[in-house]
Known about the structure:
The protein is α+β, with helices and mostly antiparallel strands and 582 residues long. The chain contains 19 helices and 29 strands.
Amino acid sequence: MTTNSNLEQKRHTLAHLLAAAVLDLYPEAKNTIGPAIDNGFYYDFDLASPISDKDLPKIEARMRELLPDWSHFVSEEVSAAKAKSHYETNPYKQELIDEIVERGEPLTLYTAGDFTDLCRGGHVEAPVTDLDPAGFKLDRVAGAYWRGNETNKMLTRIYGLAFDNQVDLEYYLAIREEAEKRDHKKLGKELGLFIFSDLVGSGLPLWTVKGTLIRELLNDYVWELRQAKNFGRVTIPHITKKDLYETSGHWSKFADELFRITTREGHEFAMKPMNCPHHTQIYAAEQRSYRDLPQRYAETTMVYRDEQSGELAGLSRVRSITQDDAHVFCRENQIEAEINTIWDIIDTFYRTFGFDLQVRFSRHNPAEFDKYLGTPAIWAKAEDKLKTVITDRYGQNFIDGVGEAAMYGPKIDFMAKDALGRILQVATIQLDFNMPERFDLTCINEQGQKEQIVMIHCAIMGSIERFMSTLIEHYAGAFPLWLSPVQVAILPVAEAHDKAASDIAHQLQAEGIRVEALYSGETLGKRLRAVKMQKVPYFIVMGDKEIESGKLTIENRQGDKEELTPKELSEKLHTAINQKLA
């Protein structure tokens, strides 16, 4: 896909063109707001009568008819009175005008062709020549509350896609079509990995036997890598007194996201939204010497956040989040070594899945310092130390993530590119000077004095739910052999072959291979389709030839076949499983 530095301006311009077309076709409509977004643009309208996706071709055609008259934009800075006069019958624009005046900003009207809109600018200079008429497409109609507030009126939002040219648009549409086929919500249901229940509640996934198996295999792998680096497992409860989060700072910053519990005695507790405050108390339970550091605690456990219903999205955003969480308590002179140890784990883990990782240095935004704990001096020290680690190991080619820091410290966020080329955030390492100070976490140093320590927060998968959604879509449900819930399917040709198939299945199961035998109650063709739908890595058709020869013809998902004895098959599978191969 090609890129263009003014793509956002093109998308902004097309939002204006969309509004012009809608007002031309539906004169009673009231236009509100229309920004550029990641893949195009949208505009919200108050319409007298509803429209649907079926109306989009007509609106899109009108946009292309208007475009030749849009030679350029004319801007005019106007008074509030003139602006309000222009939008005399549009209460939405009137509200926006009042807000702009209150902020002390200028009011500007932009005109192209016969259409004028309230806008701060940011368009292409000459729409008729700068826009490719084949580079945009109206996408869908949705509902949206005015200003995103559900107490306001529901408006009609029209989404459009926009790229530099038709080639880029068609490429995006092809990728999106493939992404829809890989949608983890669709595949998760087809593969029987997880479900959602209205009785349990939205955002609370229930994991089946197959889905739980994959989760546990992933978690076991993370623990294997951590154990080799001398992490120790800890366990904490799922609730806490309010006091813990008041001390940590989470209560004041995240009170609205907490699930709260009031006991019969009137005490206020919360379901834990994160694990770090609990882990501080394990460290604080005894006075530590500098010789005891670093202390490395790891735990895989659920946390709970009261996400808004409209923000929930399959496994990508849930209310019960399983974190493969770990915290390192160390001295300042151990920071670099400990972060590099964690970084080694992350590199090994993601290399297994073929992900290329990018690094984002997620730091605080000084203009919004009230979002963070601590002082500017503490943040400067933490960010300097973290940036040194990044540049020493990764170089200068990192993504600068201003405003992406956690509330207590800067982060190294690892970004992975999946099979569709999408960039997704996965692992994270966070450096924290603030929480140790708030909890008075210290060690006794070489001089026999108390020395404040630091915390390093790290999650390899981030959350198992989100990582599972990433893996399902990355592999299109065709998991590598070591992760597949069923590794080999055996299909007897007829009832006479059922016993031989059962014997082979039991033999492989005894050797630790996950096997499913699909016996002859259904036609062979139907059973083969079921195996392929379930994306089982290998299958064996058991007939007279296999029984007589003692050799099995094993076929993989790509259609490659190989004749092996049961012993040779077991050795082949174990080699691939142990090496975590496909």
